[in-house]
């Protein structure tokens, strides 16, 4: 199974954030790969990736849509053209509820326009670090405005590698049940990566 990734930075993309000549460290994975490996350890590979701000917005026909919807459609087109069966992405909400709505609308439209592409995506409320707090068992992590500083001050987690290590190793049973955006993303991942074990 070929997977295409899209995310904001190295936290989500790992080595795929870099230009091809700097991607030689296969152990340098981002949150997307780490989460997907928690769902399915093998039987898939990353074929390509796109940094969110470098997505070519989808421009077909006369339809006018919000920028984030066009980004979702644009990266779905790129994943499809790359011969991938799966697109996996995440985007920080950063307090922007309209962004969340537009991305959810983009998921619906992309599924309609690219029926051969399975899509795992959504926003992290409010940011990836809130998901990491939830993985450490913290309740109400998605309502924190200071998730990054809380990780550093209360858990000693400051580097990207430390965050990815927590994603890879923390017990799933420990993950906070109230982190709705995290669990929505994981459910989508399970449906795509392990369709027979729903």
Primary descriptors:
198 residues, alpha/beta, two-stranded parallel ribbon
Tell me what the structure shows.
The chain is an alpha/beta fold and 198 residues long. It has 8 helices and 6 strands, in the order E-H-H-E-H-E-E-H-E-E-H-H-H-H. It has one domain: Rossmann fold (3-Layer(aba) Sandwich), CATH 3.40.50. Helix 3 packs parallel to helix 4 and helix 5 packs parallel to helix 6. The relative contact order is 0.16.
Compressed to H and E, one letter per element, the order equals: EHHEHEEHEEHHHH
What is the fold-level CATH name, i.e. the topology?
Answer: Rossmann fold
Relative strand content? 5-15%
How many helices? The count is 8
The overall strand count is 6
- CATH top level label: Alpha Beta
Counted up, domains total 1
The end-to-end distance, rounded to whole angstroms, is 19 Å
Order of strands across the widest beta sheet?
A: 2-1-3-5
Radius of gyration of CA atoms, rounded to a whole number: 16 Å
Please state the overall shape, judged from the principal axes of the Cα atoms.
globular
The major beta sheet can be summarized as: 4 strands, parallel
- Output mean pLDDT: 93
What is the architecture at the second tier of CATH? 3-Layer(aba) Sandwich
What structural category characterises the helix and strand content? Answer: alpha/beta
Helix content: 40-55%
Given as residue ranges, the uncertain stretches (5+ residues, pLDDT < 50) are none
């Amino acid at each position: 199974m070929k997977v295409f990734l899209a995310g904001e930075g190295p936290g989500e993309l790992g080595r795929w954030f870099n230009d091809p000549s700097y991607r030689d460290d296969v152990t340098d994975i981002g949150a997307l790969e780490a989460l997907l490996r928690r769902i399915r350890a093998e039987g898939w590979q990353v074929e390509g990736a796109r940094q969110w701000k470098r997505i070519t917005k989808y421009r077909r026909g006369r339809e006018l849509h919000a920028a984030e919807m066009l980004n979702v459609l644009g990266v779905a087109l790129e994943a499809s053209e790359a011969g991938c069966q799966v697109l996996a992405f995440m985007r920080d909400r950063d307090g922007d509820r309209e962004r969340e709505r537009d991305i959810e609308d983009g998921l619906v439209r992309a599924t309609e326009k690219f029926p051969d592409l399975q899509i795992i995506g959504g926003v992290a409320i409010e940011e990836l670090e809130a998901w990491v707090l939830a993985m450490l068992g913290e309740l109400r992590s998605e309502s924190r405005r200071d998730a990054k500083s809380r990780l550093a001050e209360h858990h000693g987690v400051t580097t990207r590698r430390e965050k990815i290590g927590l994603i890879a190793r923390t017990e799933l049973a420990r993950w906070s049940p109230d982190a709705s955006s995290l669990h929505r993303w994981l459910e989508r991942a399970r449906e795509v990566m392990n369709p027979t074990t729903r």
